[in-house]
Amino acid sequence: MSITLSELGLRQKPSDITRLMAIAIERPDVLSLAAGFTDNDSLPLAEVRDIVNDISNEGPSGKATLQYGSNIGRSELRSILTSRIEAQDTLESGTLDEERMFISNGSQQSLYLAIQTLCNPGDCILVEQPTYFVFLEILEGLGVTPIGMPMDETGAVDVEGLKALLTEMNESGAIDRLKALYLVSYFANPTGHSISESTKMEIGSVLSRLERPIAVIEDAAYRELYFDSPHSARSCLAIETFVGIPTLYTSTLTKPYSSGLKVGYAYCTDDSWKESMLTVKGQQDFGTANFAQAIVERALSSGSFDRHLNELRGIYKRKMETLHEALNSELSELGWSWSVPHGALYLWLRSPNALQTDGDSRFHAACIENGVFYVPGDLCYPSERVQDRIRLSFGTLAVKEIEEAATRFSLAAKSMTQAVSR
Amino acid sequence: MSITLSELGLRQKPSDITRLMAIAIERPDVLSLAAGFTDNDSLPLAEVRDIVNDISNEGPSGKATLQYGSNIGRSELRSILTSRIEAQDTLESGTLDEERMFISNGSQQSLYLAIQTLCNPGDCILVEQPTYFVFLEILEGLGVTPIGMPMDETGAVDVEGLKALLTEMNESGAIDRLKALYLVSYFANPTGHSISESTKMEIGSVLSRLERPIAVIEDAAYRELYFDSPHSARSCLAIETFVGIPTLYTSTLTKPYSSGLKVGYAYCTDDSWKESMLTVKGQQDFGTANFAQAIVERALSSGSFDRHLNELRGIYKRKMETLHEALNSELSELGWSWSVPHGALYLWLRSPNALQTDGDSRFHAACIENGVFYVPGDLCYPSERVQDRIRLSFGTLAVKEIEEAATRFSLAAKSMTQAVSR
């Protein structure tokens, strides 16, 4: 006997990541420039061990870290993170309210809760093109339609185009189903692009003139993972044109510290939306693992978090340069192009002559044949998928492996680019 | 400007737990027999510290515990847990398939995923009366209706009554919206009742004769938290009448080890249902925190988990006896009644003369006035809420505090019971 799943249950298709990971498991010889995993060697295991040893000497408050916590998350951790955003946004201390901050299972969970509580199936969300592909999977899983915003050639939202799109949606009535605008605003996955403060300001200004408000979801997962200096733009929480627009700011301690701890956080300026998300979170898990929260809380307050993060910035910069230089010497003359990012874990490549690079392409097969993996760029587009982009991640491979992976990738690229130009 | 939430978002009401916790925070002098928190003193912090120290000496595999894991959960942990169920159910090794086992954020998350993927809003689920009240909150949050099964005077499902109910639902057509039957089968929250193997067998037999299959969700959260010996019934995974019925078995390492680690697990006999749940889990969090999984995996494989659990059984038995004896000497002659449980963390009391004990009752107010909290029993009923039951938890208070809390509770009970009998 088999059962009939719910509409949501039936809507689920195995994710593209799962499919890629399955290939990875079958072919352990293949070097992965696909996974957004973080650097292994630098994971702060000694620091975490020391923190756990300290906790074990704390007495009752130490033991309490192994007890249930609260649904919203540890008060001290929320306070630290609220102050941290204030500092990054050059806001006066006390401008933000720690009761609007909650802790989640990575930033992923807060994105999921946001869409669950905002959107009915059939509703839609504005996204950049390209955008974070797992966010697109959340939308698909919840039956929500992503609508790509017009972008300019620098990779920024084309605000005039956005205005025109909203006018068009207003005339067609489609705007009634529009619930939010999603921005990946710092060293974006996959492009590395950061949104300028003036662009954000204009977006806020456009949204504040709408008859019916739509929410803003700002995904700042990589904000702290810059190579040399932070991106200068403040977050939407601090920009005046967003005052009155319900805004959710999400970020994570997972990428800049330890992905195995899976602690993210979110700040929401709309109380009824926040309460609704928290009630759902209570149903899903009663709160994120207290012990993991206690570890990052201590890492943040002792300064070991920031020492680690500083080290990590240098590591990722070196890895990025390794990949960039190895590819540059081989591929730039063949017409492959990319921008050099200033943070995060990715190079975003464009193939020459519109060479197709999607998961079913000959190029993708040639790469696997040569022993290297990538994320097909088409997965990062909401619709009319662009077929000539590639996301390469330099996060998890060691420097020597990056060099080898770049060689393998270049071999495939050279053979196929020649094939195309023939 | 405020936004319009989704149907799901609008459906959320602050949970009763949240309300109770808010009172608890305002009144720190109040002793809580309400929270289902676990024993603080015995939390295995030294063991966890030792495990983390061992992990820190493991080299690369140790570091990898701070890296992302897989969505389904650690392979070794799933293998250990699968074997553990086989041993508990006296199944031959290899009968169960670890690919059908997944790791979740406490057992709570797997219950949530199960309902998300099975039920549309308006669908319904059969539950025991009373049942786990947070499960009722999940249903409410997802717009699903709980339907109470007829129960006999021993607290067991009345199988003849269930048959009659299903016939009636079949005739009215209501059965088309029935998706699952939920059982809390071992030392149930709140009653402490365990379901006998013969009752399970009969339930399976009734369900297997339905025209259209409905799923079974077996919540075994307290199975290992017995005082003296395990409950003799095997799980639905091992009982022949459930063969062919899509069955989800959920349990947790949170209650028997560390609630602060929040690691639960689920075994699903229906592959398409399991895949759908896992895809949604991937959208929610990509997998439960790898580090927490690695800790419990090592605790299980080294035997430290079972040593701890054995100690815990003695601790909870002593706490239960303390509460039982303190109340018994004061209240039994006044007509208060309860069964002595053989496991878990709760006494389930019935007041005399139908004295009302719900959250708005004079009795509830009198208890808070006297400095003691309980969970009103009506929260544990799906409908036609029974108003004269109380859940008392002896999990988190120390033995001396339990004695004091029992004194305070008895004072309120004596004053109100006299008031009623006057």
- Relative helix content of chain A: 40-55%
> If strands are numbered along the chain, what order do they take across the biggest sheet of chain A?
2-8-7-6-5-3-4
**Can you name the CATH architecture of the largest domain in chain A?**
3-Layer(aba) Sandwich
Largest interface: A-B, 94 and 94 residues
Order of helices and strands of chain A: HHEHHHEHEHEHEHEEEHHHEHEEEH
User: Can you tell me the number of structural domains of chain A?
Assistant: 2
Basic shape of chain A: globular
Q: How would a textbook summarize the main sheet of chain A?
A: 7 strands, mixed
Enumerate the spans of chain A where pLDDT stays under 50 for 5 or more consecutive residues.
Answer: none
How many separate helices of chain A? 14
Distance between the termini of chain A: 56 Å
The portion of residues forming beta strands of chain A comes to 5-15%
Structure explained in plain terms:
Two copies of one chain form a homodimer. By secondary structure, chain A is of the alpha/beta class. The first copy, chain A, has two domains: 8-37 and 307-421, Aspartate Aminotransferase, domain 1 (Alpha-Beta Complex); 46-302, Type I PLP-dependent aspartate aminotransferase-like (Major domain) (Aspartate Aminotransferase, domain 2, 3-Layer(aba) Sandwich). In chain A, 43% of the residues lie in helices and 12% in strands. Chain A has helices at 7-11, 16-26, 45-56, 60-63, 75-88, 106-118, 133-141, 159-172, 197-208, 271-284, 290-302, 304-331, 362-370, 399-421; strands at 31-32, 101-104, 124-127, 145-148, 178-184, 215-219, 247-252, 264-268, 346-350, 372-373, 375-376, 389-393. In chain A, the strands form three sheets. Chain A has a seven-stranded mixed β-sheet, sandwiched between helices. Chain A has a three-stranded antiparallel β-sheet with strand order 9-12-11, covered by helices on one side. A two-stranded parallel ribbon of chain A has the order 1-10. In chain A, helix 9 links the parallel strand 5 (178-184) and strand 6. The longest helix of chain A is centred in the C-terminal third of the chain and has 28 residues, at 304-331. Chain A is globular and about 65 Å long. The termini of chain A are far apart. The mean pLDDT of chain A is 94.
